[in-house]
Design a protein that fits this description.
The chain has 277 residues and is α+β, with helices and mostly antiparallel strands. It is 47% helix and 17% strand. Keywords: Membrane, Transmembrane, Transmembrane helix.
């Protein structure tokens, strides 16, 4: 067949649009289906494993593990100690008990010492005031001994009347030494205070005390215990008998109140210094 014999094309077919295929419908989401063939227990295990552990949970787990380990070690140590005591001899048990008693006693002593220190610290203000009072009292006592402070108290008065001029300085010095040995705490001779450095010298028909000339009658004012001072002067061969041999008259009187008011100026040593810091 020739080309001319071909059937003519239908003009209507060219003008019709081509048919558009319908858009596929959107697929609806399918509900999840449980795996087939799994029981409820298996599904639970599959949901819990592998576990999802947070950092906080991990830290808590480590702490609990450490606590449990420490408790286990302590229990084991106590068990070992109990086992050792069970197997110990009676002598060892007695020795251990004695050591525990000694240790308890030492701890009690330490406790008592600490409590005493606490009380001392709590009363530090009172102690400071007491220390100040003691310092003042000590200064007063030293002042009496040094002759820089007046003093009063029980004692004796000894009067030596030398009408013949036979009393010498060494005789008065013997009287001072005898009084000191008997416990005299303060001595005054004719208005001159006698101290540790006092010296007596003859000065013509009189006597000088630390360079101060004094004349008879020599009057000693002494503070101390009268019951000791008077017998010390009247012992056989003592001061009173020696002065009476020199034709001097000696009178000793006890008194409840003797006033020693002669003072010495405080002297600063030239070389000696306090060693305390």
């Amino acid at each position: 067949m020739s080309d001319n014999d071909a059937a003519p094309e239908n003009p209507l077919r060219k003008e019709l649009p081509e048919e558009v295929p319908p858009a596929p419908a959107e697929a609806e989401p399918e509900a999840p289906q449980a795996p087939s063939g799994l029981t409820g227990r298996q599904r639970l295990v599959k949901g819990l494993w592998p576990p999802r552990v947070t950092r906080a949970q991990l830290i808590v787990a480590l702490l609990l593990f450490g606590l449990g380990f420490g408790l286990a070690v302590q229990v084991a140590s106590n068990s070992d100690g109990d086992d050792a005591l069970r197997g110990a001899r009676q002598e060892d048990l007695v020795r251990i008990l004695d050591e525990l008693d000694d240790r308890t006693e030492r701890l009690e002593d330490e406790k008592q010492g600490l409590e005493e220190q606490r009380d001392e610290l709590e009363n530090s203000s009172n102690q400071a005031e007491e220390a100040r009072k003691q310092t003042v009292e000590k200064e007063r006592q030293l002042g009496i001994l040094a002759g820089t402070v007046a003093a009063q108290g029980p004692g004796i008065t000894m009067t030596i009347d030398d009408t013949k001029g036979t009393v010498e300085a060494h005789m008065l010095l013997d009287a001072v030494q005898e009084l000191r040995a008997a416990g005299a705490e303060a001595i005054q001779v004719n208005g001159v205070r006698v101290v540790a450095s006092t010296y007596l010298t003859d000065s013509g028909n009189s006597v000088s005390v630390d360079g101060n000339k004094i004349n008879a009658p020599y009057r000693f004012k002494v503070i101390g215990k009268p019951q000791d001072l008077e017998p010390a002067l009247n012992i056989p061969g003592g001061v009173v008998q020696t002065l009476e041999k020199e034709q001097a008259t000696v009178t000793v009187e006890r008194s409840d109140k003797i006033i020693v008011d002669a003072l010495r100026a405080a002297e600063r040593p030239d070389y000696a210094r306090s060693s305390s810091r």
